[in-house]
Amino acid sequence: MSAQDTGSRRFGIHPVVFGFSAGLTVLFVVLTLVNLGAAETMFSAAKDAIARRFGWFFILSVQGFLLLSLYLAASRFGRIRIGGADARPEFSSLSWFAMLFAAGMGIGLMFWSVAEPVLHLQNPPGAEPMTPAGAQRALDLTFLHWGLHAWGIFALVGLALAYFSYNRGLPMTISSVFHPLLGKRIHGPIGHALDVLAVLAALFGLATSLGLGVAQINAGLSYAFGVTFSTGTQLTLIALITAISATSVASGLERGIKLLSNVNLLAAFLLLVFVLLAGPTLFLLENFVESTGHYLQNLLVLGSWTDTYARDPGWQGSWTVFYWSWWIAWSPFVGMFIARISRGRTVREFIVGVLAMPSLLTFAWMAIVGGAALYESLFVDPGIAYAANDNAATALFELLSRYPLQDLSVLLAIFLVMIFFVTSCDSGSLVMGIMTCGGRTDIRAPQRMFWALLAGLVAAVLVLGGGLTALQTASITTGLPFSVALVFMAACLVKALREDEEIKTCPPG
Hints:
Elements: H1 3-11, H2 15-34, H3 36-74, H4 93-122, H5 132-146, H6 148-167, H7 179-182, H8 189-225, H9 231-248, H10 252-278, H11 281-297, H12 299-304, H13 314-318, H14 320-340, H15 347-380, H16 383-390, H17 395-400, H18 406-435, H19 445-464, H20 468-505
């Protein structure tokens, strides 16, 4: 038995993957803290350079991931059951859907649901600002960033991890997916490097969401209680909520994440219904139907749009390229979490569920909450749009201040963001524990607490090192190399499905 195997068995970790992942993260934290003055400039320059040079690749690959997911669902491979023919789902469909939504994009959805549509309304590519046509364009772009393309990435990564783990008996690690390409080398340096890359991408993707979450909690507390909106307040909130998250991880998947995810879904539904009833109800219902149809009608055009002839290419880099890189960086975490909770479902059920259900709720959320903000900005008072320009984190609370029961609705929104924060840390620590323990799923509480605390630390450092720009740079920088890995991952998944199908259909002898 090698020293590595002995260490893995004794401490429950993979020494190489854990050591390099934790070590590189700590190195990033230290270098940023000792160079805070230069960090913001460096982050901004890196974000702009990557977006300008590789934006086309992000857009092409994400479009391809969605189309491949749809093909797999519609093909003969859709009948394959994850875990084998006798496997059955561990969670009910409602709990499964709630966990998908909460782990996927909860904090970001709260942060951008008002801010993004009204910011696009003021600068809609291809339309006149502050007009109904501009509002339609704003929702098209918002739906693009939060809809089927994002979930296509998660579906592909989640399916690959689930299939190679439950159907081929390999460890639930990113490197396992590359078995058709690398063979036994997945257990060597190349495989370890892939796993380290996945851990770093997941960690920085999670830190981006946590950084956005505390900014919005701070904005809500400022509205409700007059708490100062500042970096110091946000660092305090990160420390407090990360401590709560680290404590919650000891309750385990069944009791912890499932319960919090169901609470998330209920709280989100209450807030959605409140805005629907307090706002222009008929307009919002019509907006949901029309905007969803318009988005679906133009899905491929939107997904291929690179803003080639724009005189200001910065828009695409600040929005679409940022989102695609964020979701790609987020995909090891979300994909592995989805894989962990999806044993027993068919490939078709998996893909349709992962693509359709969260996307449909996202469209409803954006059309109602974002649509209410667009209605106010166009037909009542553009103050929400101006507030989003000043501070995107305040936009949701600016909307709620227009309606009755302002104090109650603001508190509900703050509670929802906090629960999303805890859920993301909880599920994120589980996934990073799995990735750094060689694919083992029985992760010890201290290991999960370590990753929850480290994610909070990275979020705090990014807030110190440049705020939103630093958060965006973290996602883009880690998303670029992992997007290349996803292209090869997709090829490996298709190759494995075809090989297994040929074995089943080939006559004996």
